[in-house]
Amino acid sequence: WGTREELNQHFGIGCEHVKNALKLIQSNIRWPVYDRNPLSKWSHGHLVLLGDAAHPMLQYAGQGAAQAL
Length: 69
Hints:
Distance between the termini: 31 Å
Largest sheet: 2 strands, antiparallel
Structural class: mainly alpha
Number of helices: 3
Order of helices and strands: HHEEH
Number of strands: 2
């Protein structure tokens, strides 16, 4: 969970519509996004990386499971 202050710090510099929308939000969830260097290969012998183990996805979109399929 992020705080209202964090939300205003990141998005409060926007236009008046954004500032007004921020006032209406009662709670918010902060989703940290991380990045890493790409792997040169996703398999080695009998081991294969699938889903978000091979390529990190956004955690709230369910993309990791979809990529594994």
